[in-house]
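Reviewer 2 asked us to include a model.

Predict the structure of this chain.
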Amino acid sequence: MYHLLKLVRTIKNKHIYQSRYYCSITNESSKETSYDRGLEEARELIEEMRLSGRQVPQQISDADLEHFASIKSKKQRKNFMTFMYRRECLRLKDKEKRLEKREQRKIESEESKEYETPLANTLFLKRNQRILESDNWKLSQGMKFGQNVVFDFCYDQYMQRRDAIALSMQMGYVIHANKKAKESFHIHFVNHLEGSLSHKELVRTTTKDAYNKMMVTMSSQSLLEKFPKEDIIYLSPDSPNIMRTFDDTKTYVIGAFVDKQIQKGLSLGIAKRLNVSHVRLPIDYYLKWGSGGNKNLTLDQVIKILSAMKETNDWKEAMKHVPIRKHTGMKTCGQNQPTSSGQEPAAKDNFIFSRALRP
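Predicted model (structure tokens):
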């Protein structure tokens, strides 16, 4: 009797285990089916938008399609498709320009063949490779001996995916601007977590191999874990303190943040929570702004301003890196300039400093 009960119990447990196993397989297959169905519905919706005359890209990657399927709001879907369409147009336009330049070079080379003599040596045959090695050497020198400039990647929760895409593109421009500077900075990435939104887009836009060869120091540690508090100066467009001169003994921190929604006070709030010094660039005191002037500066423009200040310590020279389309000219000397204490001067015109660290 005992052996019979034990056999029944064993058969019952085996039946329960098998039923749970088959249920799990059924749940996984149903999830995969719902996922595929969601992507198919997203493709159909994109095709409907294209047929109705909306701005829709001709090609869309699997990652972008998955992100589009996860968006619930109709307005956000429309804005995302418009953003992807404009990116595709810019990419195609750049491709056409490159092809035109290639054809022009080909025509010029064919015309000059009649007057060319055989090469006397092969000194410049590997010019591109030597230039690349020289650029890497310059950036490596900056990493060894250059002044620290930090990009804080703690703003992922405040950005949408299109903002992260724009951020990854601007980071490429930042490294290029640092390479062209007379004295390259040692660029650091802090709070740069693997798997975060900014990390995924940076790897995707630069490719994994180029990301690993990027001449910057990346860390998942926080700002205060990497640098002493007394050496930090946080650049914030909302700071009441005005940056008067460039201090080559300090570590300047820039928020790795692209904000299309104009969220005020984020970088200033982080600087206050960390209890570090904070300043803002004096663009309102050196540039004239029109009635609808866009005061938003991209990250590479901020790096160029810092590089110019490091080299010349002249704000007028540094402000030449602000595109002329954003302002109407330079102010005259002494007009509403910041005082020696770094506070705003008493004047009738109360200029409002906008997002200096956002495009």
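Strands lie at 148-152, 186-190, 217-218, 232-235, 251-255, 277-279, 287-288, 329-330. The chain has a mean pLDDT of 77. We have added this to the supplementary material.
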